[in-house]
Specification:
The structure is a homotrimer. By secondary structure, the first copy, chain A, is of the alpha+beta class. Chain A is built from five helices and 14 strands. In chain A, a hairpin with a 2-residue loop joins strand 10 and strand 11. The longest helix of chain A has 14 residues.
Chain lengths: 251, 251, 251
Amino acid sequence: MILLFTDFGAGGPYLGQIKAVLSAAAPTVPVIDLMADAPAHDPMSAAYLLAAYASEFPHGAVFLAVVDPGVGGERRAAVAEIDGRWFTGPDNGLFEPLLRRARHARAWEIVWRPERLSASFHGRDLLAPIAARLAHGEHPWDEPMWQERPWAAALPLELLRRPEWPDELARIVYFDHFGNATIGMRACTLAETSVLEVAGRRITRARTFGDVPPGTAFWYENANGLAEIAVNQGRADQVLGVAIGSPVAVE
Amino acid sequence: MILLFTDFGAGGPYLGQIKAVLSAAAPTVPVIDLMADAPAHDPMSAAYLLAAYASEFPHGAVFLAVVDPGVGGERRAAVAEIDGRWFTGPDNGLFEPLLRRARHARAWEIVWRPERLSASFHGRDLLAPIAARLAHGEHPWDEPMWQERPWAAALPLELLRRPEWPDELARIVYFDHFGNATIGMRACTLAETSVLEVAGRRITRARTFGDVPPGTAFWYENANGLAEIAVNQGRADQVLGVAIGSPVAVE
Amino acid sequence: MILLFTDFGAGGPYLGQIKAVLSAAAPTVPVIDLMADAPAHDPMSAAYLLAAYASEFPHGAVFLAVVDPGVGGERRAAVAEIDGRWFTGPDNGLFEPLLRRARHARAWEIVWRPERLSASFHGRDLLAPIAARLAHGEHPWDEPMWQERPWAAALPLELLRRPEWPDELARIVYFDHFGNATIGMRACTLAETSVLEVAGRRITRARTFGDVPPGTAFWYENANGLAEIAVNQGRADQVLGVAIGSPVAVE
C-alpha cells in the first residue's frame, strides 16, 4: 500500500501525475490519497500530522510524503524505515516526530537520478519511482537489478532530525473541511482539565459535539489522537479567527 | 463496488483513512468517491441527493454514507438493504427518501463494536469494516466466521424513517463546482411550465445552457433527474446569492 | 490506463459517476484523475494544459477530456488517435494544440447513442462507455460485437482544428493549489532572458524558488514544460491579482 501525503491539493495535476508513475511501475499496489491538503510549504506543521496518521497503517506500508518548499535546492531526498513502515520525502524535518517516537529507524539518501529530473517536481520524478520499488519489496540495501549502482546510500539519522523541535507542537496545524482546528499536540499529553488558550479565548475539553451547546467552542481528542478545537454546529476557523501556525497555550 | 458518500471534503485525511481500512479488508473491491462534499452536517439535504444518485448503481453496490453531525452521541449505526443495494450509515434520516421510494427494504442495527472506536470517526472505525464485509457478500443475518455473536440485529424500518419529511425537498441542497444550484426535487414532479421562485427571482425552464442568453438563470432537469438552477456562462450561486438550505417555491 | 481531464471539481458527484461507469465496463483498467480543476468552461485554456500533460503518458493511454460548455448543443463527440494515444471529448478545440504538434493523427465522430443520454452529462453517458472500450483495445474501425452498427464514423481532422489559435497561448491558464500561475506557453519557446509582463509587472526568469528572495515573483519552466509564475514563499495569484485568461506579454 502506498499512501500519498502532500500539500498538492486534490484537484490539480500533481497527484494524477504521481499516480500515473506509480500505476505504471507498481500496477498491483493500491495507492491511497491519505492527505492532499497538508499545510502548504510548512513541513513542521505537516510533520506532526503525519506522525499522528502513520501509526495506524500496517508494517510495510510506504508513505510518499511531499511538503517540500526547498525542492530544487540543496536538500536531500531520503528514505526512512521507521518501526517497519517506509517513508520517502525531503530531509526537511517531515519525519522528525516519527523518528523521535520510534523504537527502530534507519535512513538512506536517494542517490539515483532519473533521466528526466524537473527542478520543481521531485515527487513525480524521483520519489514516486522509489516508492514503487519499496512497495514491491525492494530494499535500499539490495543490489538493484535495474542499474549497476545502488540507488540509495546510508544516511546518518541525525541528518533527518530536528532536535530543536518540541515533542508536541502547540500550534494550529490544520483546518479540516468542517473548519475544525487540529493542534499538533497529542491529547494524551494533556489533562482532562487542561484549558487551551487560542486567540484570547479559553477553551475547555468535551468528549464530542453533542456535549456542548450549539455555537460553543471546545477541544477534544480527535480520531487520530490529536487535540482539536471544534464548535458545535459551527466552524472553529470562523469563530476563532485563527490561521495555520497560530499559537496555542496550555493552562 | 463500494461508494463513498460523505461530507468529509476531498483533500483531507478522512477519506484516505477510510480507504486504507477498505483496502486492507476488501483489497479486490473497487472503492469510488461518489461525493465528498455532500452538504456538511445536513443529513436532510444530503438524503435527497443520495436518493437521486443511488438508483443508477447495480444491485449489490454498497454505499458508505456519512453525513453525521450526531456522531459520538446516541444515534444508531445502521445497515439497510433497499431494492437490492446496501447502505450503511447513521439513523438520522439519510436513507428516508430512498426508503420512501423503495419497493423492498430491510434494516439492521450494527451491534458489533471494534476494539478501537473513536468518538468522532465512526465512518472509519465502525462503518468501513462493515461495508467491506457487505461488499464481500456477507449478510447481516449470516453467522459470522470472525466472532461469536452476529454483528447486526434486526432494526424496525420505522427507526430509520422520517415521515414528516416531504416527498420532494423544495430547497437548494447542493452547489456544484460550476456554481449550479441543485434542488431536492425530482424534475419529473414538476411541469414543463413550472416557474421556480428563489430569493425573489422567477426562474423558468430550459433544456440546456445553450437555450438561454448568456447571464440568464434557468432551471433544467440535471443528469440525475433533479431540478437544478444554472446561469448560461455564469455562476448561479453568485447570481442568485443563495445558500444551501435556501427555500424554493414552485408556481 | 484511463486519464480523466475535466473541469468537474474534485469533490462533487460527477467524477464518481464517471468512475462507476468505467469500473463496471472496464474493471481491470486503472483510472486516474489527471486533473479535476481544468479551467471551467474554457476549452482553449484547458487545451494548452492537456497538451503539456499528455506527452508523458505511454502509448495506448486513453484520455477522457471534458471541458464542454456546449454540452447538449450541436457540438460533436469525438475520438482522436494522436501519436499513439487516444482522446475522447467534445469537438470544441480541446485537442487543437495536441493535433498541431502531432506527427500522426486520425479522428472519428461517436455516432453511437446510449439508451439514456442526459442533456448535460455526456462525460458519463457517452464518453465514459467509449473510453472503456478504447482502454480494452477496441478500435473505432472494428466491427463492434455489441451492436450491429459501428459506433464511430470517420471525422475529417479539420473539424477538430482551430487554425486561428496561436502555437503558444500567452495567457494565464491555471492556478495551482499554491497559487502559482501557469501560462499556456512552452518555456522552450522563450529565451532565458525573456521578461514576462503581467498586470503591469515585469517578471524575469529563475530556475526555482530558492533562487529569488522571499516575496519575489519570477517565472520558471514548470515540471510539464510550461512557463509558470510563482512567488517565493508567497502566492502569485494574490501578489499579481490576475485571473485565468489574463494576458501575458513577452519582451
